[in-house]
């Protein structure tokens, strides 16, 4: 079991979730139950799955939840790109979040590799 609050990947994912909530507050109200809802759901899913995985009984289970978190990361990147293409959000607000998501994804793959190595 890991203390998820101390994991840099979890801390960064939490920061991203906050940033996403700030950006989505500017989306049109007619997107509230569509794209906005989906974006927020993904943003919350990333740190939540990291935390859930860290509380599991084995490294294999943790790796499984990190995989889910990484899937949500790529889903969120796609949704932010869609928002940008539709000109619902300004590029200057989305690009830093996407860059941070790429960093979290890289951290995720590194953590998974480390957990798999320590599991052998």
Describe the overall structure.
- The chain has one domain: de novo design (two linked rop proteins).
- Helix 1 (8-24) packs antiparallel against helix 4 (91-118), helix 2 (35-54) packs antiparallel against helix 3 (59-85) and helix 3 packs antiparallel against helix 4 (91-118).
- The chain has four helices and no strands.
- The chain is elongated.
- Helices cover 77% and strands 0% of the residues.
- The protein has helices spanning 8-24, 35-54, 59-85, 91-118.
Q: CATH superfamily membership, which one?
A: 23S rRNA-intervening sequence
Tell me the number of helical segments per DSSP (H or I, 4 or more residues long): 4
CATH architecture: Up-down Bundle
Indicate the structural class. mainly alpha
What kind of sheet is the major sheet?
none
Strand content is under 5%
Total number of domains: 1
Please state the average pLDDT score: 94
* Low-confidence regions: none
CATH class: Mainly Alpha
Q: Rough shape?
A: elongated
Q: Count of DSSP E strands?
A: 0
Radius of gyration: 15 Å
Termini Cα gap: 17 Å
* CATH topology tier name: de novo design (two linked rop proteins)
H and E string: HHHH
| Estimated helix fraction | over 70%
Topology:
Layout (H helix, E strand, L loop, with lengths): L7 H17 L10 H20 L4 H27 L5 H28 L2
Helix pairs in contact: 1-2, 1-4, 2-3, 3-4
């Amino acid at each position: 079991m890991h203390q998820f609050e101390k994991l840099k990947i979890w801390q960064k994912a939490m920061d991203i979730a906050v940033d996403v909530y700030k950006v989505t507050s500017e989306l049109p109200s007619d997107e509230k139950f569509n794209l906005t809802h989906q974006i927020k759901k993904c943003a919350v899913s990333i740190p939540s799955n990291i935390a859930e995985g860290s509380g599991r009984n084995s490294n294999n289970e943790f790796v499984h939840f990190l995989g889910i978190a990484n899937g949500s990361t790529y889903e969120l990147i796609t949704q932010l790109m869609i928002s940008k293409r539709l000109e619902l959000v300004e590029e200057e607000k989305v690009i830093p979040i996407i860059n941070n998501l790429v960093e979290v994804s890289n951290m995720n793959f590194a953590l998974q590799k480390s957990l798999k190595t320590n599991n052998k």
